[in-house]
Amino acid sequence: MSEDMLIHFSSNSSNQSDQSSLPTKIAKLEARMVGKTSSAVASPAQAQAQVQVQSTLWSAAVKFGSPPDSLPESLVSSDDSDDDNGGEFLIQANTQKRRKVEDSALFEHVEAAADARQVTIESDSNKVGPDVNKKKQGRGRGSSASGRGRGSRVCDQTRIETISPSNGQLENSHKMQDCFSNEHLGLDGHTSLEEEVTSLRAKVAALEEELTKSREENSDNQNQCQQLEKELKDLKDYEQHMKPKRMKIISDLLISISKAERQEARMKVRQDSLRLGNVGVVRAGTVISEAWEDGQAFKDLNTQLRNLLENKEAVERQRKLLKKRQSDKSDGSDTEAVHDDVLFLDEVYKSRLASIKREEETVMRDRDRYELEKGRLIREMKRIRDEDGSRFNNFQILNHRYALLNLLGKGGFSEVYKAFDLVEHRYVACKLHSLHAQWSEDKKQSYIRHAIREYNIHKTLVHPHIVRLWDIFEIDPNTFCTVLEYCSGKDLDAVLKATPVLPEREARIIIVQIFQGLVYLNKRSQKIIHYDLKPGNVLFDELGFAKVTDFGLSKIVEDDVGSQGMELTSQGAGTYWYLPPECFELNKTPLISSKVDVWSVGILFYQMLFGRRPFGHDQTQEKILREDTIIKARKVDFPSRPSVSNEAKDFIRRCLTYSQVERPDVLSIAQDPYLSYVKK
Questions:
Q1: Which residues touch 386 (CB under 8 Å, ≥6 apart)?
Q2: Are residues 333 and 481 in the same domain?
Q3: Is 532 a catalytic residue?
Q4: Which intervals carry biased composition (Polar residues) (predicted)?
């Protein structure tokens, strides 16, 4: 830069050789180059620029550690003794050469500022958080090394060159201008960083606002949850408060209905007793016994039968007389006419006898129907008597849940009540087991073990053709209750008493359902033998589905039992008409398996088809045991009527195979084609 200035000066010095000395002219020239022009020549804009240059030089001098009084007087003072005649020494600028010099200097300054900015950005990227504020506060400071801007490094490099006195004041002033330009470039980088910080602050503010909204929503949700929890607690409290009232209302309604049913049942029994008969007390000496006394319907039937019998005897007597008279007159001349009269009268008598027979058959059918009604009446009378004598007949609520209604039946050691579950809102059957006070402790413990074993077997059984066991609980030290599924239909025993002979189609579907339940029992990990299949243990629900119940004598087949079966430890128990021959072997402990149930189902099927049991039908259990009736039952005989298919007879023969080894088990007989409804 100084070399260009000297060249420019030498080009103008040839025209001013007659002026002042050369040192004086150089001093004035340096003053003019830094803006020291005459006030008469300088314009207001030039004066303002001159002030800015002086202030820049002053600040640069302070920044680089030079005292203000060390500056040349021509640069510090704005007054000069040569201002008045400075115009004659004013050098006209060579615009082309100055433009080249300025462009070159500007390019170097921009390049240096870019390099400085790149270094600063790389150093700033390694800092986080509060360092941004430190950089922001440090930019523009000249006295602190840590607080310099992006142009400070270039300024530091030029400061050493600037303070060298050999370069002259002109070169120093241009170096100061270069530093000033680099500081402006650093301010530009600072501006972009501030914009980035401002953008980040805006994002942080947006996130903080979003966080505030989320917290508010969370607070609202928590308030709603607390409100809902409070409402739920109130509802539970209300439910807990209303539950006894609701149970009381339901139980009262059920009790009122049951009372009405009891009254209706007793009224019907009284009416049927007048029509069909009643149980009376007969005294023979010192012995008092009960005997049946026929009602008016049976009396009327007996009267009709007697009349029909008398008419039949009368007609038969007249017919005999007619035949005798015909033989006496057989020798007469009018034999032909007499013969016609005899034939005519004989035909009349025959017609009358046929009419009497039809009437007699009608009366006998009515009598059979009345006998069935009589049997139902006797059972209902027995039920009412047992209900009246039961200690649970006052509509108790057991276990704070089961409302007892009416008695369904009574066995040897238990009573079965129809009840309503006030929690699940369904009808159930409560079987009440009572231990007699006069029993010994051993007998009581044996009965309890028996009931517990039945419960443990029954509680795990879930199948459409097996009655469910819902619950078990203790009532008092001598009484406990098992809660069973309620079947509103009759049992098979009641059905057979009402209709002794069932059509083969109906009997077959009942057997199929029973076998489906037995297959379920034999496909479990622990197989179960029912051992007490009989008509009373087959129930029907409201839809007519058959369900097996009463697992009191059931046996659990252990895994280590062989193919021959398990030992029968309760020999003598069960219903003898439905047990196979191996259960009556007395010389050794019998081995039983599911083939016991196959035999029982065969007896049931035979009874449904023919109206009687195949072995020992008219015998008592004691007589069956005494006369070895079942042990001698080696062959099945079928009556001629009613008509039954050969497939049904063959199926019964397979079920009633005498040899236990040859008899099929449950899983085998269930595959029999007779039990399948798939058309082939």
A1: 407, 409, 410, 415
A2: no
A3: yes
A4: 160-171
Copy the structure tokens of residue 525: 């990990």
Q: Could you give the C-alpha distances from 326 to 320, 339, 350, 351, 446, in angstroms and in order?
A: 10, 7, 16, 19, 81
471-to-206, 352, 402, 405, 482 alpha-carbon distances in Å: 63, 66, 11, 18, 6
Overall domain count for the chain = 4
The token duo for 547 is 């369900």
C-alpha 11/C-alpha 425 separation (Å) is 124
Of the residues 471, 491, 532, 550, which is catalytic? 532
Residue 207 CA to chain centroid, in angstroms? Answer: 42
Per-residue confidence (pLDDT) for residue 246, from 0 to 100: 86
Within 10 angstroms of residue 70's Cβ, the number of other Cβ atoms is 9
Residues 545, 626: one domain? yes
pLDDT confidence of residue 531 = 87
Residue 431 known to bind ligand: yes
> Which residues on adjacent β-strands are paired with residue 479?
434, 476
- And the tokens for 306? 């007697």
- Name the phi and psi angles at 130, rounded to 5: -65, -20
State both tokens at 577: 């008409």
Asked, for residue 188, whether it belongs to a domain, the answer is no
Nearest to 670 by CA among 518, 491, 561, 543: 518
Helix (H) or strand (E) run with residue 170 in it:
helix 168-276
- Of 519, 514, 544, nearest to 532 by C-alpha is 514
Scanning the structure block, which residue is given the tokens 């070399």? Answer: 3
Q: Which residue stretches of 390-440 are H helix?
A: none
Q: Say if residues 616 and 576 touch (Cβ distance below 8 Å).
A: yes
Q: Which two tokens stand for residue 40?
A: 């008469």
Cα gap 473→433, rounded to integer Å:
11
pTM above 0.70, yes or no: no
**CA–CA dist 578, 576 (Å, integer):** 5
Angle (nearest 5°) at CA 349 between 343 and 352: 145
Is 17 among the domain residues?
yes
Q: How does the average pLDDT of the chain come out, rounded? A: 76
Task: Provide φ and ψ at 426, rounded to 5°.
Answer: -150, 155
Q: Cα separation of 531 and 251, whole Å?
A: 38
Let me know: does 449 contact 433? Beta carbons within 8 Å: no
Domain membership of residue 326 (yes or no) is yes
DSSP-assigned states of every residue in 474-519: EEETTEEEEEEE---S-BHHHHHHH-SS--HHHHHHHHHHHHHHHH
| Ranges 173-187, 387-401, 420-434, 516-530: which has the least confidence | 173-187
Is the distance from CB of 481 to CB of 404 less than 8 angstroms? no
The pLDDT of 46-61, averaged and rounded, is: 46
**Cβ neighbour number for residue 94 with a 10 Å cutoff:** 15
pLDDT tens, 404-439? Answer: 999 998 877 789 999 999 999 999 999 998 887 788
Spatial separation of the C-alpha atoms in residues 273 and 574, rounded to whole Å: 34
Measure the CA–CA gap between 71 and 302, rounded to whole angstroms. Answer: 160
CA distance 634 to 399: 51
